[in-house]
Amino acid sequence: MSDQTAAPTPAALLPRHPADGFTADPLGVLEEGHRLHGPVYRMPVDGVDTVLVGTWAGLGELFAAERGRLDVLNTPLVHDLFGRALFNLTADGHGEARRRLRPALSGRALPRYVPPLLDVIGPAADRWAQYGTADLHGQVRELTGAMSARVLLGITPAEADADQFAAAFEEFVAATGARPGPARYADRRYWAGRSARRNLHALFARRAAQSGGDAAGGAALAGLAVAFADAPAGAGPLEDHLLALLIAARETTASLLTWCLVELAGHRDHAEYAAAEAREVAADPDRLVARDGLPVLRSVLAETLRLHAPNLLSMRETVCPLTLAGHRIEPGTRVAYSPSAGHFDPEAFPRPRQFRPGRFLTGQANASRLWAFGGGAHACLGRPLAELMALAVMAAALQKGLPHLPAGPPARISFRPAKAPIDPLPFALESAS
To answer: Vertex 425, ends 419 and 428: CA angle to 5°?
Structure first.
C-alpha cells in the first residue's frame, strides 16, 4: 500500500475528518472517514488530534510496522490501576513479560483448562434453560468473571476466596470508569479501586504461595508463579499481569459471548446447525481444543468477532518515525486503529454487514487474520483462552436449547469500553422441538 519509492508526505497533510456524531455512532463515523479518505486520516478522538488507521490493508501495514515504532498508549488512570501490567510495558520489559506469560495462555495449555471451565459453565447453562435471565450481558459478565477466576487463580465458586475476590474485583473494575486525568483524584471510585488493587495483590500472592508450583486443578497461577519467580524488575510483577488478564478475560470475553448468543438467537438456522455440533462436545469435551474440531462453532465465533469486535479503538503512540499509506508519522503522534473498520472492509469481506459464518467454513476468509485481538508486537496473548471460553459456553448452552431473545435484539449499543447492549437484554434457551 505504501509507495516506497517516493518520499513520504508529512502526517500534517493527512485529510482531517470531523468527529461530528462520533458519540452517537462511532463506527459509522469511522467508516465514513475511511470511505472518504482511505486507510489513514486524522480526526479528534476524546478531544485529541489522532491518526486513524483502518481498512484491511491499512491494519495489515500498521501491524507489520509496529514493532519498535509504536507503544500502547494508556491513560494515567490505567497506569495507576494496572501498574506494570503487560500493556503498560515497553521495549525489553514488554518482550520479557510476554515470554513468561505465553506458556500459560498458549494452545498447549488449553486442554487442562477444559474440565474446570465446564464445571463453572454447567450451572449457568442450566439456569438459562430453566429460568432464562432478564439481562444477558450481566449474566455473561458474572460467568466470565467466575471462569477467569477459576482458570487463572484456581478459585472455585464454592470457596471462601470467591466472594472476597468478586467483591474486590468489582471495586477495581468500577475504578476504571473514573475520569482519566487529574479529576480521578476526586473520584471515590478511584480510591476504592486503589484499595481493591492492594487487596487483590495480597490474594494473588497468598494463592500463588499456597500452590507451591503445583498446577493441579487446572489453574494457570502455579505455572505463572514459577515463570515470574526470577523475572527481572522490568518485566513487571505477576500480580499486575494477573489484574490485566482477569479484566480482559472477563470484559472482552463477555462482550464476545453476548454477541455470539445474540447472533445465534437471530439466525435460527445457524443455531440449529451449531447445536448439532455442540452435542458432540458433551461426549468428547476435548473437541473444544482440537485444532480441526468444531468447525461450525468456530465459524460462528469468527464471524461474531468480525461483526462485533469488543474494542472499537486501540490507542498507540509513535516512538520513532513511521510511514503509513505514504505518510510520515512523527514520534509522539497518537495513532488509533479500529478492528471493526478493517472487518467491515468490503474488499476483504463481501457483504460485510451480513452474519455469514459460512465465509470461514468455505475458506473465503481466515479467522487467524481477524484483528479483534490486535496484531503485531502487541497482539493479545489471551486470544486462545478467550476463544476457548466462548466456545465452551456456546457448546454448553446449545446442548440445553436454542438461544432466544424474548424482547428482540438490543436497541441501543455502547461501543466503549467494550461493545455491549446498553439496556437489560432478556434471554432464554428454548427447546428445539
So the answer is: 120
Q: How far apart are CA 32 and CA 51, in angstroms?
A: 15
Beta bridge partner(s), residue 255: none
Using DSSP bridges, classify how beta strands 48-53 and 314-318 pair: parallel, antiparallel or unpaired: unpaired
Question: Residue 9 phi/psi, 5° resolution?
Answer: -85, 150
In the block, residue with C-alpha cell 455470539: 260
What are the residue ranges in the chain where pLDDT is below 70? Answer: 1-7, 213-217, 432-433
In order of 55, 125, 341, the CA distances from 369 in angstroms are 13, 31, 14
Say which amino acid occupies 298.
R
Residue 266's alpha-carbon distances to 261, 271, 278, 407, 427, in angstroms, are: 9, 9, 18, 12, 12
Amino acid at 147: M
- Quick one: pLDDT at residue 214? 61
Largest CA distance in the chain: 65
CB-hemisphere CA count at 13 Å for 4? Answer: 2
**Which pLDDT value is given to residue 4?**
46
Report d(CA 402, CA 353) in Å as an integer.
23
The three three-digit cell numbers of residue 4, written as one number: 516506497
Sign of CA dihedral 335, 336, 339, 341: negative
Beta carbons within 8 Å of 36's beta carbon, 6+ residues apart: 15, 17
Residue carrying C-alpha cell 479501586: 193
| Residue 217: other Cβ atoms inside 10 A | 15
What is the pTM for the complete model shown? Answer: 0.93
35-56 as b/e, with b when 16 or more CB fall inside 10 Å? eebbbbbbbebeeeebbbbbbb
Beta strands in 226-385 (DSSP E): 314-318, 322-324, 327-329, 334-337
For residues 44 and 242, what is the distance between their CA atoms, to the nearest angstrom? 33
According to DSSP, the β-strands at 420-421 and 413-414 are: antiparallel
pLDDT of residue 182: 95
Q: How far apart are CA 301 and CA 396, in angstroms?
A: 14
Q: If 0-12 CB within 10 Å is exposed, 13-18 middle and 19+ buried, where does residue 408 land? A: exposed
